[in-house]
């Protein structure tokens, strides 16, 4: 082998070692895979093509000229997942703690630019101590270059962030702008300021895990949509998520082969209880409707009074938004409105048709909700549905009351098809509350106010607690038996497949953020 070839092979060998064997061992001891191992697991075997393997930092202060590692702490390139092109960067914690230098940022930017020009998703694996402290402002500039591209790429190509180690300081704002954040339990954390700063400023004692671990962000802040037990599961969930998404905003969603058969699902008949106030699990309804084992829930530990997630219907990817009567009776509140609005906007950006399953008694009352802006937050969901131009179908399984009826993808805000089960109750409010208001005088003047209230309640319920008044107005297109739901939806989504709709020309709307 001639000298030049040998030199190349030696340089490659060096690069593959990252920060060296000892640091790699330290990484493994923390139950973390290396940057390269993560890429290997994520991409189809042999598909990874690396870009910028020999890039090195340019810093000379603090003895940095004597510490150079080929690749400079991030492995970047492209490959395929299930045969579909993706661009990827994976931060290497063994090189300066995966910290972001000027050149490290340039490598990420190069990948993002290629992804935009070629219309394919970007997956970023974050495992970094933040800005490369030795470099100062050029590192900050590098971050801003990435944030700017994250923003421009939003709605053009799917962007997925995996948090598989530290992600702190301003570094959090790149994942925050991307479409999905997936965090690994126990080994990852995200925060703007860490426990030491928190202690100094607010005198609170808190660990990194409690402050910004996977659990905190999946249950309290809602910053992360998906969590996974370890590196391997994080990667498996990423592949699954990607399987529902198109390559870019102009592409159709992926579709698996499906032969239509008898799509009647008897199991849907017994889910909604006879008593209107008894809870039930809307996930049973979802699983009864969609292709077997295809439901992939997003944000499952946050605001669980609403369910969002992807599924397949006759092989076609759809997004689902569903009230969950099992939690807070399925009311809409601040957190569930925000959660659902973001999901609806994602689906609309990427041509993923929307199915809404509705059982909602209204908005949650109270000072906490009002002072935390249920007005603006509820409006986010209303706005998100109203501006969505993808095929949109609603099925009302039980309650559809008050303003929440309007918000949950009603015909009036542009839904294409609206179905109701015979158990549906579509009214301005519940029979008791309504009777107390409109028959107030009659009730109080009567000899037996309690019996009169009961009688009025019954009359009101008979008149309004059904789907037929809405159906007689055309607000509901058809009242269907639960077991027919899957069949009806398959046909209706197929009918809507080439839907073309447009919102008025504008620079952009002003969603109540
Ligand atoms: C340069 C860094 C580094 C950084 C870690 N290292 N962070 N080098 N810049 N930001 C190096 C360490 O010197 C060490 O080098 C190696 O990475 C591993 O770090 P350890 O501390 O040994 O690892 P660990 O104990 O696991 O702790 C990880 C850590 C800690 C919690 C991330 O390293 C840490 O607190 N780092 C600093 C975090 C930080 O303050 N970053 C700047 C935030 S400001 P050797 O040679 O020993 O392997 C910021 C602004 C961004 O990010 C703004 C954008 C808008």
Can you put this structure into words, describing what you see?
- The chain is α/β, with parallel strands linked by helices.
- 39% of the residues lie in helices and 17% in strands.
- It folds into three domains: 2-242, Alpha-Beta Complex (2-enoyl-CoA Hydratase, Chain A, domain 1); 266-428 and 465-495, 2-enoyl-CoA Hydratase, Chain A, domain 1 (Alpha-Beta Complex), CATH 3.90.226.10; 431-464, no CATH class.
- Strands 10, 11, 12, 13, 14, 15, 16 and 17 form an eight-stranded mixed β-sheet that branches. A seven-stranded mixed β-sheet has the order 1-2-3-4-5-7-9, sandwiched between helices. The chain has a two-stranded parallel ribbon with strand order 6-8.
- It starts with a helix and ends in an 18-residue tail after the last helix.
- The structure holds hexanoyl-coenzyme A.
- Hexanoyl-coenzyme A binds at residues 23, 96-97, 99, 129-133, 140, 143, 166, 168-171.
- Hexanoyl-coenzyme A is lined by residues 23, 96-97, 99, 129-133, 140, 143, 166, 168-171.
């Amino acid at each position: 082998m001639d000298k030049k070839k040998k030199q190349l092979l030696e340089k490659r060998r060096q690069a593959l070692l990252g920060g060296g064997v000892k640091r790699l061992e330290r990484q493994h001891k923390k139950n973390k895979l290396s940057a390269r191992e993560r890429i290997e697991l994520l991409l189809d075997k042999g598909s990874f093509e690396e870009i910028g393997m020999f890039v090195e930092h340019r810093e000379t202060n603090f003895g940095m000229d004597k510490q150079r590692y080929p690749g400079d702490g991030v492995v970047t390139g492209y490959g395929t997942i299930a045969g579909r092109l993706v661009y990827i960067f994976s931060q290497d914690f063994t090189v300066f703690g995966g910290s972001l230098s000027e050149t490290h940022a340039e490598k990420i930017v190069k990948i993002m630019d290629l992804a935009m020009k070629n219309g394919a998703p970007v997956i970023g694996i974050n495992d970094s101590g933040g800005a490369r402290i030795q470099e100062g402002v050029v590192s900050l500039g590098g971050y801003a270059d990435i944030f700017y591209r994250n923003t421009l790429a939003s709605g053009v190509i799917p962007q997925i962030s995996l948090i598989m180690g530290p992600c702190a300081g301003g570094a959090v704002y790149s994942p925050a702008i991307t479409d999905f954040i997936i965090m690994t339990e126990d080994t990852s954390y995200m925060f703007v300021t860490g426990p030491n700063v928190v202690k100094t400023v607010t005198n609170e004692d808190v660990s990194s895990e409690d402050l910004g671990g996977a659990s905190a962000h999946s249950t309290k802040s809602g910053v992360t949509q998906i969590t996974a037990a370890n590196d391997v599961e994080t990667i498996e969930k990423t592949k699954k998520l990607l399987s529902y998404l198109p390559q870019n905003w102009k592409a159709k969603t992926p579709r698996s082969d499906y032969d239509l058969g008898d799509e009647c699902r008897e199991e849907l008949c017994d889910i909604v209880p006879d008593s209107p106030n008894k809870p039930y699990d809307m996930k049973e309804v979802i699983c009864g409707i969609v292709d077997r084992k295809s439901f992939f829930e997003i944000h499952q530990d946050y605001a669980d009074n609403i369910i969002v997630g992807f599924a397949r219907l006759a092989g076609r990817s759809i997004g689902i938004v569903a009230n969950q009567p099992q939690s807070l009776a399925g009311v809409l509140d601040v957190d569930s409105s925000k959660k659902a609005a973001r999901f609806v906007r994602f689906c609309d950006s990427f041509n993923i048709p929307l199915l809404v399953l509705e059982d909602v008694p209204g908005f949650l009352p109270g000072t906490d909700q009002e002072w935390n802006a249920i007005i603006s937050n509820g409006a986010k969901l209303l706005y998100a549905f109203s501006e969505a131009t993808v095929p949109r179908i609603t099925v009302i399984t039980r309650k559809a009351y008050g303003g929440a009826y309007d918000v949950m993808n009603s015909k009036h805000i542009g839904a294409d098809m609206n179905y109701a089960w015979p158990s549906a109750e579509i009214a301005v409010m519940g029979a008791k509350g309504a009777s107390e208001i409109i028959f107030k005088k009659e009730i109080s003047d009567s000899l037996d106010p309690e019996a009169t209230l009961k009688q009025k309640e019954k009359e009101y319920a008979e008149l309004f607690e059904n789907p037929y008044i809405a159906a007689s107005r055309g607000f509901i297109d058809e009242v269907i038996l639960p077991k027919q739901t899957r069949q009806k939806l398959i046909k209706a989504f197929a009918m809507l497949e080439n839907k073309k709709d447009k919102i008025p020309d504008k620079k952009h709307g002003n969603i109540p953020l």
